[in-house]
Amino acid sequence: MSKTTAAITAVGSYVPDFVMTNKILETLVDTNDEWITTRTGIKERRILKGEGLGTSYLAIRAAEQLLEKRKLDPKEIELIIVATATPDMMVAATAAYVASEIGATNAFAYDLQAACSSFLYGMSTAASYIESGRYKKVLLIGADKMSSIIDYTDRTTCIIFGDGAGAALFEPNNEGLGLQDEYLRSDGVGRNFLKMDAGGSLLPASEETVKNRQHFIYQDGKSVFKFAVTNMADSAAKIMERNNLSHNDVSWLVPHQANKRIIDATSNRMGLDDSKVMMNIQRYGNTTSATLPLLLSDYESQLKKGDNLVFAAFGGGFTWGSIYLKWAYNS
């Protein structure tokens, strides 16, 4: 018998209607379109508007699109993982609510949080469940409503982030396709450079924390950039080396969309031409856990069965890594 691997067999996505352009941001903070574009590559990002709409709304819409495209009965799904840094609320798992809302009544569900690496780590988790033979259909959703934790008076962060969601279905494969290898890492020093100070057990919410604006994301841009450039590029290069992949063997780089300069540094290290690099940062900004599945959804029509994909991400904590996956279907 051939080894069972975990393949992605369907993808879906959702982004909100409201487009926040660089021109709009010029009216909120001291910045301009040229400055944002040259330093990040971002031209616009999507923002979820509407009372009572959280990350679950984004996740449900992405999952529903996948189910519709695949003509899949949600009752067949056995596990749902929602990768997110912005759950609807503390304690109650967002994934459990998402599962119920899409009709996945036979699935158990939980959230996975590793900042911008959440979906990458989730791929490893979903694949492990499939490879074990215990489950046949695992739905992994990356979703974040970053606008809920962004200070729109802080020009260092508000220009970067947007809202969105993407979903991928993992199923068993016996053709040697799907997830081939992974290289995942973390370093706790990162909590000093990219974080949200208040709202957790270390610094519970209080009148003081609200006044001090400590419930918004903080980023030491230079330090994060330096760590991200080095580690995303290193992990992608390492996964190629371990699997004897040359730049000619790699069909696509699927990189976390944090900053175009970080993406360029990673692709240059891998020796890849720009035509092999998935990119949508100009339209969505950094959607944190949603960047990787949004790329898959946007580029799905260009993917061919057997294509070698290298995923790379870097996130707060710090968390980072790379995954090598063989695409399993022609769209």
Secondary-structure topology with pairs:
Layout (H helix, E strand, L loop, with lengths): L4 E10 L3 E4 H5 L6 H8 L3 E4 L7 H16 L8 E5 L10 H8 L6 E5 L5 H14 L6 E8 L17 E11 L4 E9 L7 E2 L11 H5 L6 E2 L1 H22 L9 E4 L4 H11 L10 H4 L6 H9 L8 E8 L3 E8 L5
Parallel strand pairs: 4-5, 4-6, 11-12
Antiparallel strand pairs: 1-7, 2-3, 6-7, 8-13, 9-10, 12-13
Helix pairs in contact: 3-4, 7-8
Summarize the structure.
This protein is of the alpha/beta class and 331 residues long. The chain has 10 helices and 13 strands. It starts with a strand and ends in a 5-residue tail after the last strand.
Protein model, in words:
Helix content is 31%, strand content 24%. By secondary structure, it is α/β, with parallel strands linked by helices. The chain starts with a strand and ends in a 5-residue tail after the last strand. The model has no long low-confidence stretch (mean pLDDT 97).
